[in-house]
Specification:
Layout (H helix, E strand, L loop, with lengths): L11 H15 L10 E2 L5 E3 L6 E3 L9 H8 L7 H12 L5 E4 L8 E4 L2 E5 L6 E4 L2 H9 L4 H10 L7 H13 L20
């Protein structure tokens, strides 16, 4: 169980989580093989689909091959043009490829006496663009306000991936079993004329 949000910044759990994320993200990427892949160089699992979308390994991120795979999963194809506009600032940036857990929710972080005992459930883990851990963390804990506040206190991502989160949110509204049909959300920016 995570402690209350109002713990000091040097609280043991916050320090240990910062350290664990720093260590994970500093693991060197494989020197050969695909840049974006699971831990064994194979397909990655994308959590937006009930049957778990498998994305094949991608050799480079610089030519947006990875991002094109994400667009191929969009259920509401009428949104593609709008999604590409939202994606433009994200896809124009260079990103480090970092080792990523991709499923950091409370059930996967075992805590005892305010110490991280283990991080479990690594099926989504792999090598991803550096923003992926943050966008997946936010989207998977979307309706859990204390969690959002807790991760802000961990302070690892400090709001540096705002455009990436905007794109991820739009993709979640448009993809797989997580999609939201046009017109369901009042004033959905994806349904507004360009």
């Amino acid at each position: 169980m995570f402690p209350e949000v109002n713990v000091p910044d040097d609280h043991t759990l916050l320090v240990e989580l910062r350290d664990a994320l720093t260590q994970l993200r500093s693991l060197p990427a494989p020197l050969s093989g695909p840049q974006i892949s699971n831990t064994n160089g194979g397909p990655t699992i994308w959590a937006r689909c009930k049957d778990r979308c498998l994305l094949p390994p991608v050799n480079t991120i610089t030519d947006s091959e990875f991002h094109e795979l994400l667009f191929q999963q969009v259920s509401w194809t009428s949104r593609l043009e709008r999604l590409r506009l939202i994606a433009k600032p994200v896809h124009s940036r260079d990103y480090r490829i970092t080792f990523t857990h991709s499923d950091l929710n409370p059930e996967n972080i075992l805590v005892k006496d305010d110490h991280v005992v283990a991080i479990i459930d690594w099926e989504f883990a792999g090598w991803y663009p550096e923003y992926w851990e943050y966008t997946q963390l936010v989207m998977q804990n979307l309706h859990i306000r204390p969690q959002e506040e807790f991760w802000k206190r961990v302070g690892f991502f400090s709001g540096q991936y705002i455009e990436e989160l905007k794109l991820e949110r739009a993709l979640w509204h448009s993809t797989g079993d997580m999609y939201i049909a046009p017109g369901v959300i009042p004033n959905d920016y994806l349904d507004q004329p360009m």
